[in-house]
UniProtKB/TrEMBL annotation:
It comes from the Bacteria. SUPFAM superfamilies: GAF domain-like, Winged helix' DNA-binding domain. GO terms for biological process: negative regulation of DNA-templated transcription. InterPro entries: ArsR-like_HTH, GAF-like_dom_sf, HTH_MetabolicPath_Reg, Tscrpt_reg_IclR_C, Tscrpt_reg_IclR_N, WH-like_DNA-bd_sf, WH_DNA-bd_sf. The lineage of its organism: Bacteria, Pseudomonadati, Pseudomonadota, Betaproteobacteria, Burkholderiales. This is IclR family transcriptional regulator. The keyword DNA-binding applies. Residues 11-74 form the HTH iclR-type domain. GO terms for molecular function: DNA binding; DNA-binding transcription factor activity. It comes from Bordetella genomosp. 8. SMART domains: HTH_ICLR. Keywords: DNA-binding, Transcription, Transcription regulation.
Length: 253
């Protein structure tokens, strides 16, 4: 019989998760960093990180844009990723890519100077890159999906976005505006984005953007894996699979 006594690990983890969620809700949209959460709840920081990953995966919490703080996310908040028509449109493609590659597949869209991950589809390979999750915001260009979107913009607009985000880029593996602009040029010449070791150490992503009839980016799909699974030949292969799925989406419209 399953143990539901107060000392059972499951209920204890649940109580701690609820403690963290309550602290986040008490502090509204300003949010709390992990150190603050540990102080308010009495829970050690490594445990806080694990609990935050579970809360964000469940859509109950999200990172405050441009910071290391987290806030509670109410299920009825407007713009929740699962209500976005772009997710409904692309979900079959995301699942096919996850099955075909065995790796994590992401749907990424633009919101001003930021990218938002709308969905993460998990592949079957035993080691998955899961640091990016639905609802996570990053400066546009961080991560292969965001880079595909940034590189698809007119040059002047892309450079202005990088300039406005300059003060936040160092938080992502020491990224610099100069390096980001170099990645933009590489993405344009290659035809797809390849970004590694910036947002997530030990990871490399391949991303491609879907463009509208005016040539502007609508969304991006990316595949991310550990670096050992991403030699140059496989990068090209995955980019081709993503582009085929994006072409299928265009033909459906």
């Amino acid at each position: 019989m399953e143990d539901f006594t107060p000392t059972a690990a499951g209920p204890r983890t649940l109580r701690r998760g609820l403690q963290v969620l309550a602290a986040l809700r008490d502090h509204g949209t300003d949010g709390l960093c992990v150190t603050d959460l540990a102080r308010y709840t009495g829970i050690q920081r490594p445990t806080i990180y694990r609990l935050m990953a579970a809360l964000m995966e469940a859509g109950l919490a999200q990172q405050v844009a441009g910071s290391k703080r987290y806030r509670a996310q109410l299920a009825q908040e407007a713009g929740a990723p699962d209500s976005d028509p772009r997710l409904r449109q692309t979900l079959p493609a995301l699942r096919r890519l996850a099955e075909r590659t065995g790796d994590a597949v992401f749907l990424v869209v633009r919101d001003g100077d930021e990218s938002i991950s709308l969905h993460r589809e998990i592949g079957g390979y035993p080691v998955q890159i899961l640091a990016t999750y639905a609802g996570k915001r990053q400066p546009l260009g961080v991560g292969s999906g965001g880079m595909a979107l940034l590189a698809a913009l007119p040059d002047e607009e892309a450079r202005s976005i990088v300039e406005r985000n300059a003060t936040h880029l160092d938080e992502y593996g020491g990224m610099t505006p100069h390096e980001m602009l170099r990645l933009v040029e590489n993405t344009r010449s290659r035809g797809y984005a390849v970004v590694g070791n910036h947002a997530v150490r030990g990871a490399l992503g391949v991303g491609c953007a879907l463009l509208d009839t005016q040539g502007m980016p609508v969304l991006a799909i990316s595949v991310t894996a550990i670096i050992d699974r991403m030699p140059a030949q496989r990068q090209r292969e995955i980019a081709g699979w993503i582009q085929a799925e994006l072409a299928r989406l265009q033909n459906q419209n």
